[in-house]
Predict the 3D structure of the following.
Amino acid sequence: MKRILLACLLGAAATLVQAGPKIEHWTAPSGARVVFVESRVVPIVDVQVDFAAGGAYAPADKAGLAGLTRSLLDMGAGELDEEKIADRLADIGALLGGGADQDRSSISLRSLSSPREREAALDLMRLVLQKPVFSADVLAREKARTIAGIREADTRPASIAAKRFAAALYPAHPYGRVPTAESVERVGRDDLVAFYKAHYGARRATVSIIGDLSRAEAEAIAQRLTDGLPDAPAEVSLPDTALPAKNTVRIDHPATQAHIHLGLPAVRRGDPDSIPLLVGNYILGGGGFVSRLMKEVREKRGYAYSVHSYFQPQKQLGPFQIGLQTKREQAAAALKVVEDVLAEFLARGPSEEELRAARRNLADGFPLRIDSNRKLLEYLAVIGFYGLPLSYLDDFPRKVEAVTVADIRAAFARHVKPEHFVTVIVGGE
Protein backbone atom coordinates (compact mmCIF):
# COMPACT_ATOMS: atom_id res chain seq x y z
CA MET A 1 0.00 0.00 0.00
CA LYS A 2 2.81 2.43 0.85
CA ARG A 3 4.38 1.75 -2.55
CA ILE A 4 1.09 2.52 -4.25
CA LEU A 5 0.74 5.80 -2.41
CA LEU A 6 4.33 6.75 -3.20
CA ALA A 7 3.77 6.09 -6.87
CA CYS A 8 0.70 8.31 -6.79
CA LEU A 9 2.60 11.07 -5.06
CA LEU A 10 5.36 10.98 -7.63
CA GLY A 11 2.84 11.05 -10.41
CA ALA A 12 0.86 13.95 -9.05
CA ALA A 13 3.03 16.56 -10.68
CA ALA A 14 0.86 16.65 -13.76
CA THR A 15 -2.24 18.32 -12.32
CA LEU A 16 -3.88 21.52 -13.39
CA VAL A 17 -0.90 23.36 -14.81
CA GLN A 18 -2.11 25.89 -17.31
CA ALA A 19 -5.44 27.33 -16.29
CA GLY A 20 -6.37 27.69 -12.68
CA PRO A 21 -8.54 24.89 -11.35
CA LYS A 22 -12.29 25.27 -10.84
CA ILE A 23 -12.71 26.13 -7.17
CA GLU A 24 -16.09 25.57 -5.56
CA HIS A 25 -17.10 27.12 -2.26
CA TRP A 26 -19.95 26.64 0.20
CA THR A 27 -20.83 26.67 3.88
CA ALA A 28 -21.46 23.27 5.45
CA PRO A 29 -24.52 22.73 7.68
CA SER A 30 -22.11 22.74 10.62
CA GLY A 31 -21.10 26.32 9.77
CA ALA A 32 -17.66 25.45 8.40
CA ARG A 33 -16.47 27.13 5.22
CA VAL A 34 -15.52 24.70 2.46
CA VAL A 35 -13.39 25.05 -0.69
CA PHE A 36 -13.16 22.17 -3.13
CA VAL A 37 -11.40 21.21 -6.35
CA GLU A 38 -12.26 18.01 -8.17
CA SER A 39 -9.10 16.47 -9.64
CA ARG A 40 -9.24 12.99 -11.16
CA VAL A 41 -5.62 12.90 -12.35
CA VAL A 42 -4.42 10.58 -9.57
CA PRO A 43 -6.37 8.45 -7.07
CA ILE A 44 -5.54 10.72 -4.14
CA VAL A 45 -7.62 12.83 -1.78
CA ASP A 46 -6.12 15.74 0.17
CA VAL A 47 -8.03 17.37 3.01
CA GLN A 48 -6.97 20.22 5.27
CA VAL A 49 -8.95 21.77 8.10
CA ASP A 50 -7.81 25.20 9.29
CA PHE A 51 -9.04 26.85 12.47
CA ALA A 52 -8.78 30.43 13.64
CA ALA A 53 -6.70 29.09 16.49
CA GLY A 54 -3.17 30.34 15.89
CA GLY A 55 -0.68 31.67 18.38
CA ALA A 56 -2.25 35.14 18.42
CA TYR A 57 -5.34 33.71 20.13
CA ALA A 58 -3.46 32.32 23.14
CA PRO A 59 -3.32 34.25 26.44
CA ALA A 60 -0.36 36.60 26.73
CA ASP A 61 1.20 34.67 29.61
CA LYS A 62 0.86 31.27 27.88
CA ALA A 63 2.52 31.79 24.52
CA GLY A 64 3.00 28.35 23.00
CA LEU A 65 -0.45 27.10 24.01
CA ALA A 66 -1.74 27.11 20.42
CA GLY A 67 1.19 25.07 19.15
CA LEU A 68 0.94 22.53 21.97
CA THR A 69 -2.81 22.15 21.45
CA ARG A 70 -2.31 21.46 17.77
CA SER A 71 0.60 19.07 18.41
CA LEU A 72 -1.36 16.92 20.82
CA LEU A 73 -4.40 16.51 18.55
CA ASP A 74 -2.93 13.46 16.83
CA MET A 75 -1.03 12.19 19.87
CA GLY A 76 -4.06 10.46 21.33
CA ALA A 77 -7.73 10.51 20.37
CA GLY A 78 -10.69 8.43 21.52
CA GLU A 79 -9.37 5.01 22.52
CA LEU A 80 -6.22 5.36 20.42
CA ASP A 81 -2.84 6.50 21.70
CA GLU A 82 -0.26 8.06 19.41
CA GLU A 83 1.34 4.71 18.58
CA LYS A 84 -1.98 3.19 17.51
CA ILE A 85 -2.78 6.26 15.44
CA ALA A 86 0.56 5.93 13.68
CA ASP A 87 -0.03 2.22 13.09
CA ARG A 88 -3.44 2.80 11.53
CA LEU A 89 -2.04 5.47 9.25
CA ALA A 90 0.69 3.08 8.12
CA ASP A 91 -1.84 0.28 7.52
CA ILE A 92 -3.89 2.37 5.10
CA GLY A 93 -1.02 4.33 3.56
CA ALA A 94 -2.35 7.70 4.75
CA LEU A 95 -0.48 10.75 6.01
CA LEU A 96 -1.51 13.22 8.71
CA GLY A 97 0.19 16.58 8.98
CA GLY A 98 -0.42 20.20 9.86
CA GLY A 99 0.91 22.93 12.09
CA ALA A 100 0.23 26.33 13.61
CA ASP A 101 1.20 29.92 12.88
CA GLN A 102 -0.04 33.18 14.38
CA ASP A 103 -3.40 33.14 12.56
CA ARG A 104 -4.35 29.49 12.18
CA SER A 105 -3.85 25.93 13.29
CA SER A 106 -4.33 23.16 10.76
CA ILE A 107 -4.50 19.41 10.35
CA SER A 108 -4.17 17.79 6.95
CA LEU A 109 -4.77 14.34 5.52
CA ARG A 110 -3.54 12.62 2.36
CA SER A 111 -5.12 9.32 1.43
CA LEU A 112 -5.78 7.05 -1.48
CA SER A 113 -9.25 7.71 -2.88
CA SER A 114 -10.30 4.05 -2.95
CA PRO A 115 -13.31 3.64 -0.63
CA ARG A 116 -11.66 1.37 1.95
CA GLU A 117 -8.57 3.48 2.46
CA ARG A 118 -10.34 6.82 2.18
CA GLU A 119 -13.07 5.96 4.66
CA ALA A 120 -10.62 4.56 7.18
CA ALA A 121 -8.42 7.64 6.86
CA LEU A 122 -11.36 10.02 7.26
CA ASP A 123 -12.61 8.09 10.29
CA LEU A 124 -9.21 8.57 11.86
CA MET A 125 -9.06 12.26 10.98
CA ARG A 126 -12.53 12.77 12.44
CA LEU A 127 -11.50 11.05 15.65
CA VAL A 128 -8.39 13.22 15.94
CA LEU A 129 -10.37 16.40 15.31
CA GLN A 130 -13.34 15.68 17.51
CA LYS A 131 -12.07 13.50 20.37
CA PRO A 132 -8.52 14.48 21.30
CA VAL A 133 -7.40 13.11 24.65
CA PHE A 134 -4.72 15.66 25.58
CA SER A 135 -2.90 13.15 27.75
CA ALA A 136 -1.17 14.73 30.75
CA ASP A 137 1.81 12.43 30.26
CA VAL A 138 2.16 13.32 26.58
CA LEU A 139 1.79 17.01 27.41
CA ALA A 140 4.57 16.79 30.00
CA ARG A 141 6.85 15.15 27.43
CA GLU A 142 6.04 17.68 24.71
CA LYS A 143 6.48 20.61 27.09
CA ALA A 144 9.89 19.31 28.09
CA ARG A 145 10.87 18.89 24.45
CA THR A 146 9.55 22.34 23.53
CA ILE A 147 11.33 24.03 26.43
CA ALA A 148 14.59 22.30 25.57
CA GLY A 149 14.23 23.51 21.98
CA ILE A 150 13.53 27.07 23.10
CA ARG A 151 16.55 27.15 25.41
CA GLU A 152 18.80 25.81 22.69
CA ALA A 153 17.39 28.29 20.16
CA ASP A 154 17.95 31.16 22.57
CA THR A 155 21.69 30.58 22.26
CA ARG A 156 21.69 31.06 18.49
CA PRO A 157 21.92 34.58 17.07
CA ALA A 158 19.52 33.86 14.21
CA SER A 159 16.80 32.76 16.61
CA ILE A 160 17.48 35.63 19.01
CA ALA A 161 17.21 38.12 16.14
CA ALA A 162 13.93 36.65 14.87
CA LYS A 163 12.31 36.70 18.31
CA ARG A 164 13.45 40.20 19.22
CA PHE A 165 12.38 41.45 15.80
CA ALA A 166 8.84 40.10 16.28
CA ALA A 167 8.64 41.61 19.75
CA ALA A 168 9.89 44.99 18.55
CA LEU A 169 7.60 44.96 15.51
CA TYR A 170 4.50 44.17 17.56
CA PRO A 171 5.20 45.45 21.10
CA ALA A 172 1.52 45.60 22.09
CA HIS A 173 0.00 43.03 19.74
CA PRO A 174 -0.40 39.23 19.96
CA TYR A 175 1.74 38.83 16.83
CA GLY A 176 4.71 39.90 18.95
CA ARG A 177 4.34 37.09 21.46
CA VAL A 178 6.81 34.25 21.16
CA PRO A 179 6.93 31.13 23.33
CA THR A 180 9.43 31.20 26.18
CA ALA A 181 10.47 28.47 28.56
CA GLU A 182 8.41 30.22 31.24
CA SER A 183 5.25 30.64 29.14
CA VAL A 184 5.33 27.02 28.00
CA GLU A 185 5.89 25.80 31.54
CA ARG A 186 2.67 27.57 32.60
CA VAL A 187 0.56 25.56 30.15
CA GLY A 188 -1.44 22.78 31.77
CA ARG A 189 -3.81 20.16 30.42
CA ASP A 190 -6.83 22.28 31.41
CA ASP A 191 -5.47 25.07 29.22
CA LEU A 192 -5.32 22.78 26.20
CA VAL A 193 -8.86 21.56 26.77
CA ALA A 194 -10.16 25.12 27.21
CA PHE A 195 -8.30 26.39 24.13
CA TYR A 196 -9.62 23.50 22.05
CA LYS A 197 -13.22 24.09 23.15
CA ALA A 198 -12.96 27.84 22.53
CA HIS A 199 -11.24 27.80 19.14
CA TYR A 200 -11.79 24.46 17.40
CA GLY A 201 -15.41 25.00 16.49
CA ALA A 202 -16.96 24.48 13.06
CA ARG A 203 -17.74 28.17 12.66
CA ARG A 204 -14.01 28.91 13.03
CA ALA A 205 -13.06 26.19 10.54
CA THR A 206 -12.21 26.15 6.85
CA VAL A 207 -12.15 22.77 5.11
CA SER A 208 -10.09 22.52 1.93
CA ILE A 209 -10.53 19.42 -0.24
CA ILE A 210 -8.90 18.44 -3.52
CA GLY A 211 -8.79 15.12 -5.27
CA ASP A 212 -10.46 12.16 -6.85
CA LEU A 213 -14.02 12.64 -5.62
CA SER A 214 -17.27 14.43 -6.48
CA ARG A 215 -18.83 17.57 -5.06
CA ALA A 216 -21.41 15.46 -3.23
CA GLU A 217 -18.66 13.35 -1.66
CA ALA A 218 -16.76 16.48 -0.66
CA GLU A 219 -19.89 17.92 0.97
CA ALA A 220 -20.33 14.75 3.00
CA ILE A 221 -16.67 14.76 4.06
CA ALA A 222 -16.71 18.39 5.20
CA GLN A 223 -19.84 17.85 7.28
CA ARG A 224 -18.54 14.57 8.70
CA LEU A 225 -15.31 16.18 9.88
CA THR A 226 -16.93 19.24 11.45
CA ASP A 227 -20.37 18.29 12.76
CA GLY A 228 -19.01 16.95 16.05
CA LEU A 229 -16.61 19.78 16.84
CA PRO A 230 -17.03 21.90 19.98
CA ASP A 231 -19.78 24.52 19.98
CA ALA A 232 -17.25 27.33 19.88
CA PRO A 233 -18.27 30.88 18.99
CA ALA A 234 -17.57 32.31 15.58
CA GLU A 235 -14.18 33.85 15.09
CA VAL A 236 -13.33 36.95 17.09
CA SER A 237 -11.28 39.50 15.20
CA LEU A 238 -7.71 40.07 16.25
CA PRO A 239 -6.86 43.59 17.40
CA ASP A 240 -5.54 46.06 14.86
CA THR A 241 -1.80 46.44 14.59
CA ALA A 242 -0.08 49.77 15.11
CA LEU A 243 3.01 51.01 13.33
CA PRO A 244 5.94 51.09 15.76
CA ALA A 245 8.15 54.06 16.45
CA LYS A 246 11.44 53.97 14.57
CA ASN A 247 13.83 52.02 16.74
CA THR A 248 17.14 50.15 16.66
CA VAL A 249 17.72 47.24 19.04
CA ARG A 250 21.32 46.09 19.52
CA ILE A 251 22.00 42.78 21.25
CA ASP A 252 25.48 41.67 22.18
CA HIS A 253 26.51 38.15 21.12
CA PRO A 254 29.91 36.50 20.64
CA ALA A 255 29.07 35.16 17.17
CA THR A 256 31.45 36.12 14.37
CA GLN A 257 28.47 37.02 12.16
CA ALA A 258 26.08 39.85 12.87
CA HIS A 259 22.42 39.06 12.21
CA ILE A 260 20.36 42.02 11.00
CA HIS A 261 16.58 42.33 10.57
CA LEU A 262 14.72 45.49 9.62
CA GLY A 263 11.15 46.21 8.64
CA LEU A 264 7.65 47.04 9.84
CA PRO A 265 4.07 45.71 9.90
CA ALA A 266 3.01 46.21 6.30
CA VAL A 267 0.22 44.24 4.65
CA ARG A 268 -2.93 42.19 5.27
CA ARG A 269 -4.12 39.18 3.28
CA GLY A 270 -6.33 40.30 0.44
CA ASP A 271 -4.93 43.83 0.25
CA PRO A 272 -5.38 45.24 -3.29
CA ASP A 273 -1.68 46.15 -3.31
CA SER A 274 -0.58 42.54 -2.73
CA ILE A 275 0.39 41.85 -6.35
CA PRO A 276 2.35 45.09 -6.94
CA LEU A 277 4.13 44.51 -3.62
CA LEU A 278 4.98 40.94 -4.64
CA VAL A 279 6.35 42.00 -8.02
CA GLY A 280 8.26 44.92 -6.53
CA ASN A 281 9.74 42.79 -3.79
CA TYR A 282 10.94 40.24 -6.33
CA ILE A 283 13.03 43.02 -7.81
CA LEU A 284 14.13 44.48 -4.48
CA GLY A 285 15.14 41.40 -2.51
CA GLY A 286 12.89 38.43 -3.23
CA GLY A 287 14.35 37.33 -6.54
CA GLY A 288 17.52 35.68 -5.29
CA PHE A 289 20.68 36.53 -7.20
CA VAL A 290 18.87 38.87 -9.61
CA SER A 291 17.53 41.15 -6.85
CA ARG A 292 18.92 44.62 -6.23
CA LEU A 293 19.89 43.87 -2.66
CA MET A 294 21.89 40.80 -3.70
CA LYS A 295 23.67 42.74 -6.43
CA GLU A 296 24.58 45.67 -4.17
CA VAL A 297 25.28 43.88 -0.90
CA ARG A 298 26.80 40.61 -2.11
CA GLU A 299 28.09 40.98 -5.66
CA LYS A 300 29.46 44.52 -5.54
CA ARG A 301 30.70 44.65 -1.94
CA GLY A 302 30.86 41.10 -0.61
CA TYR A 303 29.20 42.06 2.66
CA ALA A 304 26.98 38.99 2.86
CA TYR A 305 26.49 35.63 1.23
CA SER A 306 22.75 36.25 1.10
CA VAL A 307 20.33 39.09 1.70
CA HIS A 308 16.58 38.88 1.26
CA SER A 309 13.33 40.77 1.64
CA TYR A 310 9.77 39.54 1.83
CA PHE A 311 6.18 40.44 2.69
CA GLN A 312 4.23 38.06 4.92
CA PRO A 313 0.54 39.03 4.75
CA GLN A 314 -1.61 37.99 7.73
CA LYS A 315 -5.11 38.70 9.08
CA GLN A 316 -3.74 41.92 10.47
CA LEU A 317 -0.68 43.73 9.14
CA GLY A 318 1.99 41.12 8.54
CA PRO A 319 5.65 42.07 8.33
CA PHE A 320 7.81 43.42 5.58
CA GLN A 321 11.31 42.29 6.44
CA ILE A 322 14.83 42.62 5.10
CA GLY A 323 17.37 40.23 6.58
CA LEU A 324 21.07 39.45 6.21
CA GLN A 325 24.15 38.12 7.99
CA THR A 326 27.52 39.80 7.76
CA LYS A 327 30.84 40.04 9.59
CA ARG A 328 30.56 41.90 12.89
CA GLU A 329 32.88 44.64 11.76
CA GLN A 330 30.89 45.15 8.55
CA ALA A 331 27.45 45.38 10.14
CA ALA A 332 27.15 49.17 10.04
CA ALA A 333 28.42 49.41 6.46
CA ALA A 334 26.18 46.60 5.23
CA LEU A 335 23.13 48.11 6.91
CA LYS A 336 23.88 51.46 5.29
CA VAL A 337 23.95 49.85 1.85
CA VAL A 338 20.62 48.11 2.52
CA GLU A 339 19.04 51.37 3.62
CA ASP A 340 20.40 53.20 0.59
CA VAL A 341 19.14 50.55 -1.83
CA LEU A 342 15.69 50.65 -0.24
CA ALA A 343 15.59 54.46 -0.31
CA GLU A 344 16.49 54.46 -3.99
CA PHE A 345 13.83 51.85 -4.72
CA LEU A 346 11.17 53.79 -2.83
CA ALA A 347 12.09 56.99 -4.65
CA ARG A 348 12.34 55.67 -8.20
CA GLY A 349 10.89 52.18 -8.29
CA PRO A 350 12.26 49.51 -10.61
CA SER A 351 13.47 49.99 -14.14
CA GLU A 352 11.30 48.80 -17.01
CA GLU A 353 13.85 46.08 -17.72
CA GLU A 354 13.72 44.84 -14.12
CA LEU A 355 9.94 44.89 -14.21
CA ARG A 356 9.73 42.89 -17.43
CA ALA A 357 12.05 40.23 -16.02
CA ALA A 358 10.10 40.03 -12.76
CA ARG A 359 6.73 39.78 -14.50
CA ARG A 360 8.03 37.08 -16.79
CA ASN A 361 9.48 35.04 -13.92
CA LEU A 362 6.45 35.30 -11.64
CA ALA A 363 3.78 34.82 -14.30
CA ASP A 364 5.54 32.09 -16.27
CA GLY A 365 6.65 30.27 -13.14
CA PHE A 366 3.25 30.32 -11.46
CA PRO A 367 2.00 27.05 -13.00
CA LEU A 368 4.86 25.25 -11.23
CA ARG A 369 3.49 26.49 -7.92
CA ILE A 370 0.20 24.65 -8.45
CA ASP A 371 1.41 21.65 -10.44
CA SER A 372 0.50 19.12 -7.78
CA ASN A 373 -2.44 18.60 -5.49
CA ARG A 374 -0.21 18.99 -2.45
CA LYS A 375 0.92 22.46 -3.56
CA LEU A 376 -2.57 23.45 -4.59
CA LEU A 377 -4.01 22.42 -1.24
CA GLU A 378 -2.18 25.19 0.59
CA TYR A 379 -3.42 27.76 -1.92
CA LEU A 380 -6.96 26.47 -1.40
CA ALA A 381 -6.52 26.72 2.36
CA VAL A 382 -5.31 30.31 2.13
CA ILE A 383 -8.09 31.28 -0.28
CA GLY A 384 -10.74 29.74 1.95
CA PHE A 385 -9.38 30.82 5.33
CA TYR A 386 -8.70 34.44 4.36
CA GLY A 387 -11.72 34.84 2.09
CA LEU A 388 -9.74 35.57 -1.07
CA PRO A 389 -11.54 35.56 -4.45
CA LEU A 390 -12.16 32.11 -5.87
CA SER A 391 -10.64 33.43 -9.10
CA TYR A 392 -7.33 34.17 -7.36
CA LEU A 393 -5.35 31.48 -9.19
CA ASP A 394 -6.79 32.43 -12.57
CA ASP A 395 -6.26 36.13 -11.90
CA PHE A 396 -2.67 35.91 -10.65
CA PRO A 397 -0.74 35.75 -13.98
CA ARG A 398 -2.93 38.44 -15.56
CA LYS A 399 -2.56 40.78 -12.58
CA VAL A 400 1.20 40.26 -12.49
CA GLU A 401 1.50 41.10 -16.18
CA ALA A 402 -0.54 44.28 -15.63
CA VAL A 403 1.72 45.71 -12.89
CA THR A 404 3.50 48.96 -13.83
CA VAL A 405 6.41 50.86 -12.34
CA ALA A 406 3.94 53.44 -11.06
CA ASP A 407 1.88 50.69 -9.38
CA ILE A 408 4.94 49.41 -7.53
CA ARG A 409 6.05 52.87 -6.41
CA ALA A 410 2.58 53.72 -5.15
CA ALA A 411 2.13 50.39 -3.33
CA PHE A 412 5.52 50.61 -1.64
CA ALA A 413 4.84 54.21 -0.63
CA ARG A 414 1.63 53.09 1.07
CA HIS A 415 3.08 50.08 2.88
CA VAL A 416 6.85 50.51 3.34
CA LYS A 417 7.53 53.50 5.59
CA PRO A 418 11.15 53.74 6.80
CA GLU A 419 10.11 56.26 9.46
CA HIS A 420 8.46 53.31 11.25
CA PHE A 421 11.23 50.77 10.71
CA VAL A 422 12.43 48.56 13.51
CA THR A 423 16.03 47.36 13.17
CA VAL A 424 17.45 44.48 15.22
CA ILE A 425 21.19 43.77 15.19
CA VAL A 426 22.51 40.75 17.04
CA GLY A 427 26.29 40.54 17.38
CA GLY A 428 27.29 43.70 15.55
CA GLU A 429 30.00 46.09 16.71
The first helix runs from residue 2 to 11. The two ends are 57 Å apart (CA to CA).
